[in-house]
Every structure is written in structure tokens, then in C-alpha cells.
Write a structure and sequence with these properties.
Layout (H helix, E strand, L loop, with lengths): L3 E7 L3 H12 L3 E8 L6 H14 L7 E3 L14 H4 L9 E3 L11 H11 L4 E5 L4 H9 L3 H4 L2 E5 L15 H5 L1 H9 L4 E4 L1 H4 L3 E3 H11 L2 H17 L10 E3 L3 H8 L4 E6 L1 E3 L9 E3 L19 E7 L1 H13 L16 H5 L2 E3 L8
Helix pairs in contact: 1-11, 1-12, 4-5, 5-8, 10-11
This protein binds beta-D-ribofuranose and calcium ion.
């Protein structure tokens, strides 16, 4: 089977890193580009992390384009360094030497548009940060919903409480105006939100086992990042008793390769863009009721929303995919030239702390 072409729009971010490595490891996916956004870190740090993580795993050929630095309308907020670390990767003690390379000169939005035009109907856009790049791409190319195969977002929540307010999920909260435009645009759109991501806990012990198995700096880096992230999550949620975390962004890719693991509902989704409910994703789950208020009665496109998930099957798929020896490549190169936090926080180590695969 031909692998699905993926553009990964991301704000790495620990769970973003986990998701990236799953996407690189899965034979059914072909990551043809990465676009970055502010969110868990600044957009500069997000771009540096995307370059670093991909190169460290041996995928320095994947283009990385830097995207939006701030929300469309609301003021920017400081990145949540207490969750993802100052560097977005759990404050890495060292950065390994990786092939030096430049960012793609295009904006994230222009990159998405160019790729969609070059491969009409073939590209799945997996967006796991605030949705400013998707929104900007729509402005550049209003027919983008017809050019992309599918858009899968990690963001939002319907029945599960929010993670930044009682009703709002972080990615939507970070740019509610952009999200509102994306839900209204007419994409073949699936929302993978907290309704399912709060059901799947990845334990640190799994990443320990992966690090032992692979003996590769990319997995050591991921393991360190997850340990930091797990410190934030463990004990805060009743479902996380042993050291572990939610793997939010990973589930967007699991949906792409194994949609049968999810139960979905379809309905119109709208986003609250101010007030006490700011960032809430409201889904009309009663399509037969003609709600008369403006916005519900206008024939907006529906979104597929993931409501339930087979968590053990997701974890088994993640583990089996990551444990494959074939996907990680040896890294040979010079020092990364754009590592923002690699300069501030971490020394750069020579390649291969272990003998590599
Ligand atoms: C989402 O917010 C970010 O912190 C994570 O990377 C994920 O995309 C979870 O709410
Ligand atoms: Ca993210």
C-alpha cells in the first residue's frame, strides 16, 4: 500500500515529539513536510525542535517551514515551560550533533498550499498545535479544503472537561479565532480531542524500554522529554498513578492509520472566541433540532469528532510501531545551526552516545 503523504503542523512540545517519531516509524505514513507554530514554545523554538528531532532520527531530508508566531486576535501568552520545559523537550541536558541545515524559506502556510497544489487530493494535514498556519493557508488558497485529502487535528473537547479552563482545550484556547475558521472551512475534518486523548496514558516505563531497545540518541531524547512531561501529569489525573502522561498529539496519527480504534460522531462544531467559555468547542449533537440561534442554522459543514477510543489497542500499536528497528537511522553530521535552546540550555554532544542501530 502506498503510504499516506503527511504534512505535520506542530509546536514541539513533548507529545508532539512522540507523535513525530510514531509518524516516522509507521510504514503507512510518509511525512513530506513539517510546519511549525507557536504554542508549547515560541515558533522559533518549535522550528529548531522540528529540525533537531527529525535530523536526530535520521530524517534531515524532511523540509521544515516556520509558521505563525502569535494568535490571530487574542494577545500572546507565555509558553507553558512548566509542562514542556523551556526548550519544549523537557530541558534536555545536551543536544546531540545533527546534520546542519536551513529552514525551508517559505512560510508554513505557503508550504502547505504549495504541497497541496502539487499533490491534489493526496495530502493529509495533521495539525496538533494552535491552528494559525491552517487558517493562513486557507487565506492564501481558499480551495484548500478541496486540495487536501483530509485534515486531522488534535484539539478541542466535547464532553470531557478542558485542560486550560473547565471547557477549553489548550490548542483551541491558544487561537480560538483560527480554530473557528478551520471548523467552518469545509475540510474533510476530524477532531481528536480530550474526549479520547484523556483515555490513553503512556507510561514512562514504556519509553525506558524503548531506550534500552534502540540505544539511539533520538529515543534517549524522547525518553528524557517524556520524564519531564510525566512529572507534570502524574498524580494530577486519577488515571495517571504510575509515572506517565497523556500522549495527546500521538492520537491524531493513530486515527490516520487506525480509525477503527475510534468511535466518532458527526456534527457542526463552533468555537467560543471570547468570554468565560473562550476556546470551548461546542458540537451540535442533536442535528434533528433546528436550533434557531445564528450560526447553528446556517448549514455549516460537519466535523467528525472522536468520542471514544480503544486505549489498549492504541498503546499496543504505538509500542509495536516504535519498537521496529528499521525506522531509526544513524546520525552523522555537524552541529545544528539553529538550535535556539540548544545554545541557551544545553551543551552539544558528539553523535552517538551509544553504539547506534
Ligand atoms: C495539546 O496542547 C499541547 O500542549 C499539546 O502538545 C497538545 O497538542 C493538548 O491539549
Ligand atoms: Ca501540540
Amino acid at each position: 500500500m502506498t503510504p499516506i503523504k503527511i504534512i505535520y503542523d506542530t509546536d514541539p512540545g513533548v507529545d508532539d515529539a512522540m507523535a513525530l517519531y510514531f509518524a516516522l516509524a509507521h510504514p503507512g505514513l510518509d511525512v513530506v513536510g513539517i510546519t511549525t507554530t507557536f504554542g508549547n514554545v515560541t515558533v522559533e523554538q518549535a522550528a529548531a525542535n522540528a529540525l533537531y528531532l527529525s535530523a536526530l532520527a535520521g530524517y534531515a531530508h524532511i523540509p521544515v517551514a516556520k509558521g505563525v508566531a502569535a494568535p490571530l486576535v487574542k494577545p500572546s501568552e507565555a509558553p507553558p515551560d512548566f509542562i514542556h520545559g523551556r526548550d519544549g523537550l523537557g530541558n534536555q541536558p545536551i543536544r546531540h550533533a545533527v546534520p546542519s541545515r536551513a529552514l525551508d524559506p517559505r512560510s508554513g502556510a505557503q508550504f502547505i498550499v504549495d504541497m497541496a497544489r502539487a499533490h491534489p487530493g493526496e495530502i493529509t494535514l495533521v495539525a496538533v498545535g494552535p491552528l494559525g498556519n491552517v487558517c493562513a493557508a486557507l487565506r492564501l488558497e481558499p480551495t484548500l479544503p478541496q486540495l487536501l485529502r483530509e485534515v486531522v487535528i488534535m484539539g478541542g473537547t466535547v464532553a470531557e472537561p478542558g485542560n486550560v479552563s473547565p471547557v477549553a482545550e489548550a490548542n483551541i484556547w491558544n487561537d480560538p479565532h483560527a480554530a473557528e475558521q478551520v471548523f467552518a472551512a469545509g475540510f474533510q475534518l476530524t477532531m481528536v480531542g480530550l474526549d479520547v486523548t484523556h483515555r490513553v496514558v503512556t507510561e514512562l516505563s514504556l519509553f525506558d524500554a524503548m531506550a534500552r531497545h534502540h540505544q539511539h540518541p533520538a529515543i534517549d531524547t524522547l525518553r528524557h522529554a517524556v520524564a519531564f512531561y510525566a512529572d507534570f501529569y502524574t498524580g494530577v489525573h486519577a488515571s495517571i498513578q504510575r509515572k506517565g502522561c497523556f500522549a495527546h498529539d500521538l492520537l491524531a496519527f493513530v486515527y490516520v492509520v487506525a480509525p477503527q480504534l475510534f468511535e466518532t460522531e458527526r456534527g457542526v462544531v463552533r468555537v467560543a472566541v471570547d468570554g468565560i467559555a473562550n476556546g470551548q468547542t461546542m458540537m451540535n449533537r442533536r442535528a434533528h433540532i433546528q436550533y434557531p440561534q445564528m450560526g447553528w442554522a446556517e448549514g455549516r459543514p460537519a466535523t467528525t469528532v472522536c468520542m471514544r477510543v480503544d486505549a489498549p489497542a492504541c498503546l499496543a500499536l504505538f509500542e509495536a510501531t516504535m519498537m521496529d528497528k528499521a525506522w531509526l537511522k544513524p546520525v552523522v553530521g555537524q552541529v545544528d545551526s539553529v538550535g535556539v535552546a540548544s545554545r541557551q540550555d544545553a551543551a552539544v554532544a558528539p553523535p552517538h552516545r551509544h553504539s547506534s542501530v
